[in-house]
Give the backbone structure.
Amino acid sequence: MIFHSHSEEETKQLGRKMAKTVTADTICMFGEMGCGKTEFVKGFLEGLGYNGDVTSPTFALCHTYDAEKTVYHYDLYRLSGYDDLYSIGFFDRPEGTVSLIEWSENAEDYLPEDALRIYFTYGDGPEDRILRWEENE
């Protein structure tokens, strides 16, 4: 599926909608810096009833949010390889939780096969983004 966003708010709206409809417990996000991954996460968390601040965990590597489900928000920008992922508890997520993973391209070999993959790219205008996703079942 493909979604064309013309603003950060539209990207967040898609995140809110997907939080209510997606059944995957892992969402892997791919794309360049500034393509809307964190805005999507903000909307997704809003869709699960979370009303607090949401920031990219670039330096913390993982933020945990308590919403309708516990959400683990990873930023793998500075990581590569199994040892880095293991050291942040990437493989230890409890059942019944959701993982939202930014910079999934840095962990391609370790992502769950059944994860939803969303590819973020720039559109024609300065605020335009194109989101394309695939769900492996």
Observations:
- The beta strands are 2-5, 26-30, 62-66, 70-75, 98-102, 116-122, 129-135.
- The domain at 2-135 is CATH 3.40.50.300 (Rossmann fold).
